[in-house]
Amino acid sequence: MMAQGNPNRIYIIGAGFTGTSIASEIKKKNIFGRVVAFIDDDPQKIGKRILDIPVLGPLEAVVEIIKTTPADEAIIAIPSATNGQLKRIYDTLKRAQFSKIRIVPRLSQIIDGSVHLIQTREINPEDLLARSPVKVDLRQTLKYLRGKRVLVTGAGGSIGSELSRQLLSGGAERLYLFGHGENSIYEIEKELKILQEEGVGERATIVPIIGEIQDRDYIFFLLKRLKADVVFHTAAHKHVPLLEANPVEAIKNNVFGTKNLVDAAKEAGVKRFVFISTDKAVEPTNVYGASKLIAEEIVLHEGKKGNKFIVVRFGNVLGSTGSILPLFQKQIQKGGPVTITHPEVKRFFMTIPEAASLVLKAGGTGEGGELYILDMGEQVLIRELAEQIIKFYGFEPEKDIQLTYIGLRPGEKLTEKLWSNDETPYQTESKKILKLKRTSLLNGNLTGLIKRLEPICFFDKNKPELFRNRRALKIILNEAIPTIEVPENEPEY
Q1: For residues 283 and 417, is the Cβ–Cβ distance under 8 A?
Q2: Confidence at 60, pLDDT banded by 50, 70, 90
Q3: Catalytic residue among 148, 238, 259, 280
Q4: Which of 286, 322, 471, 482 has the most CB atoms at less than 10 Å from its CB?
C-alpha cells in the first residue's frame, strides 16, 4: 500500500464498466496513485472525459501517447479479452516500457458482475499462453451451494484455493478450508477475509481447519461435527518423480485418505462429494496415477449406491504449485538453462481459474457415480511452451536462454490421454464438460485390492514383512493395473 499523495501514474486500458469502476475506486481511496488516462480503441469514446479522466487512444498509439501523458503503471480492465487480444495489449504496453502491468479477473472468475481493485494482479505468462477461457455463468452454476456448508480439502493448494475464491461469491453459509499445511491455510484464509472486507463475495463464515486426511478417526469426528453439505476433495500428493521415490506414501495418502473422506462423508450425510482427479489416472505408468485411479473407483463405487458422489478429471493446470511454469520462471530468472525432459513431450493445459469454475459447474450437475472430463483442447508441446515463456520475459530462446533436454523421468509418458480405451466420452449440456462411461476397472476387485494394500501402508503384526514394502506394492498394483511395471531392481524398502 502506498502513502497518501503517492505520485504513481496509472493508465487504465478499457474505458468500459470495469475500467470506470476500477478508476472510481482508485480515486476514492486516493492512496494507490492517480489515473491519468483511459486507453481505448473505441472512436466514440476517444477524446471524451470519464470521471474527469481523459480517454485517449487507440491502443496502438500508446507508445506516442505516453510521451505527452507520462504513466508508470497500466491496468488492463477488459475481462472479456481473448488471449490473442491480451497478447496484443501486453506487447504494446511492453513497448511503451510500463514498469508494472496489472490485469483484472477474467470473465470465468467474475460472479456478481463487478470487479474490485483488490482483485487485480500482475499479468503473468499463463494469461497469454492458455486458450481463451470458457465463459461459465458462475452465478447460475453456484446456486446449488447457496445456504450450504462447503468443505474444501487441500484448500491451500492451487486448485483448492481458487475453488475457495470462487465459492466466496456462491452464497454458502460456511466455507471450511481444510489442509495439512498451516502456512497455506493461513494465507488463503487471510486472502478471503481481505476480499470480503473489500466487498468481494458474500458474507460466508470462513473456518480454517488443520488436519490430515490420513487420520481416519479425526476425519470421521470432523465431518460429523461440521455437518457439511458439499465436499470438494482436492487434497493429494501429486509430484510424479517424488512419489516414484515414495510410492507407499502416495497410496497411503491418495487412496486411503480418499477412502477415509468418502466413508466419513457417507456416514455424516454429506449430500454431494466432488473428487478432483487427473489425466495421469488414465492407463497409469506411475504410482501417482495408479493412486488416483484407485481413488476414482472408491468415489464412483460409492456414487453408484445412490449418493451424489462424482469425479472430475482434467490435465495439467498452468501455474499450479510444483508445475513446470514456476520451474521455468525460476530457471529463466537465473539465466537458464530451461530443462525439458524430451523434445516431443506434450501435455494438456488449462488455467487454474477455468479449471476451478468448470469443476464447480460439473459438481452441480452430477447425480452420483459419474465421471466427468474437462475438455482440455489440444495437447501442447512443452518445448514450445518453454519458448513462449522465455519470450514473455524478453529473451530469445537458444540465444539468450538455452533449452536442455534431460530425458523422461521414471513413470513419465511422452503424451497423456484424458480417457482410456475402456471409457467412452459423451457430450453434456455444458460446453467443455464431457461425461465418461466406463466398465469397472481394477479387474472389478476394488475391495480386494484395498485389503491387499492395507498391510503395506499400515503395520500389521501378522504381516510385518509387508509394511512399507515398495516392491510388494508394485507387484500388487501391477496385478490390478497392468500398465504399472515392476522394475527388476525395485528395492523392498
Answers
A1: yes
A2: very high
A3: 280
A4: 286
Q: What is the pTM of this model?
A: 0.89
Is the CA virtual torsion 357, 361, 364, 366 positive or negative?
negative
Are 34 and 167 in the same domain? no
User: Which of 82, 104, 129 represents a domain boundary (last residue)?
Assistant: 129
List Cα–Cα distances, 29 to 23, 130, 198, 316, in angstroms. 10, 34, 12, 39
- In angstroms, the CA 319 to CA 122 distance is 14
The range of the structural domain enclosing residue 454 comes to 443-480
Segment 214-255, tens digit of pLDDT = 999 999 999 999 999 999 999 999 999 999 999 999 999 999
Quick: pLDDT tens for 114-152: 788 999 999 988 888 766 666 677 778 888 999 999 999
Is 399 in the active site? Answer: no
- Residue 202 included in any domain: yes
Contact 375, 347 (CB under 8 A): no
Contacts of 67 (CB under 8 A, 6+ apart): none
The domain tally of the chain equals: 3
Give counts: helices (H), strands (E), the chain: 17, 22
